[in-house]
Every structure is written in C-alpha cells, then in structure tokens.
Amino acid sequence: MKLGLEKYVYLDSYIHRWECRPKLIAFITLIFSFTFIKDIAFLPILIIITALLFIISKLPFSFLLSRLRYPGMFILAVVILLPFLTGDTIIFSWGLLQVKKEGCLLMLIVVTRFVCILTTTLVLLATSPFLNLIKSFHSFGLSPIISDMMLLTYRYLEEFSDRLDRMKKALRLKGFNLHKYDHRQFIVVGNLIGSLLVRSYEDSQKVYQAMKLRGYGQNNLHLPQPTEVINPSHWIASATVVLISITIVICQAIM
Alpha-carbon distance 140 to 226, whole Å? Predict the structure, then answer.
C-alpha cells in the first residue's frame, strides 16, 4: 500500500496555504500538548480541535480512515487488555473476566489521544509537500545528514510499496491465494519479505554509490534556506495555536 501523503496537497484550504515554517511550529506544539493529556475531561477539547483542523483542511474522510486503519489495529491490540488489568472498581463481571472502570477510562484516554495525534500529523503531512517540510526543518537547524536520510526514506518507502504491489500481483497471477492461511502461505510470505529486504538493501547500495560518484559527502552542499517573506497572518495563526497548546498543558498541570 502506497503512502500517498501528497495526494491531496493540491487542495485549496487555509491549512494548505499556511506557510510551512509557522505551520510546522504550530502543529508540533499542538501534538506535544496532546501527549500531556491525562484527564478525561480534556478529551472533548482534543476531539474538537482535531475535528476543526481536519474540516478546515478539506481532506476527504476516506483518506483519514485508510491511514488510521493499520495504526488503529496496533493501538487496539496494545490497549485491549487495560479494562481487565487496570484498576479496582469492577463495573462488569463474567466468570473470571472483570471489566474495571479505571482501565476503561485509561483505554479511552489512550485511544482518543492516539487518534487525535495521528490525525493532526496526517493533516500536517497531507497539506504540505514533503520537501517543503524538510526545508523548514533544515531552516530550524536540522542536520543535513538527517534531512537526506528523511528524504531517502520517504522516497524508498514509496519504491518499496510499488515493488510489494508488483510481487502481490505476480503471486495472484500464479494462483496464490493471499487470504488463505496455512503452512505454505507463511513460507511464501516469508520468502516475499526476505526478497523485498534483500532487493531494498541492494538498491540502497547502488544509490549510495551513485551519490558518491556525483560528489555526495565531498562538499558542503545543503538544502537552500527559505528566503521568502512570510505573511504576518501566518505567524499570528501559529502563535494562536501555540497559545492554545500552552493553555491546555497549563490547565492539565493545575487540575
């Protein structure tokens, strides 16, 4: 499955038009403020802020659902046992299974916080070209080596997805059922994963050699620093989001 994070960067919304540097500051601050939430009373605020950002971005809801599916399965597998293991107040009992109030509340907080953070991150990534985000990080002092690694990783995740799709199509054409689970299935899938890893490693070696032949690492070439003048309204919007984020953290701390 392709990442497709830049599929909707062409849309016309305020968040799309928001310049990358102030937007990056605002979103990162907001995401960090979400991580501090431990009181269930603040969950509606998180949901409202996240919903407003997503609505303003004009991204399709199907895009969000497709990107939340696999991370959602992971977080659900992690927190599913919390209602049974955490807390002392039993609200439901069936044999040896005891559902506890504290565990249910903790699961609600963890899941809500996770969904809001992931949705906010998706809005940031889907409304800005990835190269512009890297340039913004670089202008804030990010190491050029890390910038290069992030760009190469993003590119080869897409290449990895394309290759995986081709291999899956080839297996289907040969009559292999990807939804049948048996001993042979696991062997074939294991061979597929091994082949992908080996080919990806070989490709990375070729790319690195090609970059060295073109002078990579032998000079101080860096990403160009952004020089355009940013509209003051973009900084005002960023300051507003930062102020909201700080307010959330302070309110959480004093309650």
Answer: 11
Predicted confidence (pLDDT) at residue 1 exceeds the cutoff of 50: no
Pair (71, 114) in one structural domain? yes
The Cα–Cα gap between 64 and 118 comes to 9
Instruction: Look at the block and give the residue holding tokens 């305020």.
Output: 14
Which helix (H) or strand (E) segment is 3 a member of?
none
Query: What pTM was computed for the model?
Result: 0.77
pLDDT digits (tens, 9 = 90+) for 19-42: 989 999 999 999 999 998 888 888
Mind listing the pLDDT tens digit for each residue in 203-212? 777 777 877 7
Is 240 inside any structural domain?
A: yes
Tokens of 18: 């928001």
Residue 139's φ and ψ, nearest 5 degrees, are -70, -20
Question: Is the separation of the CB atoms in 82 and 39 below 8 Å?
Answer: no
- Which sign does the torsion angle of CA 121, 123, 126, 132 carry? negative
Give the burial class of 171: count Cβ atoms within 10 A of its Cβ; 0-12 exposed, 13-18 middle, 19 or more buried.
middle
Q: Is the separation of the CB atoms in 15 and 53 below 8 Å?
A: yes
Q: Domain of residue 25: give its range.
A: 14-139+227-254
Q: Which two tokens stand for residue 95?
A: 């044999």
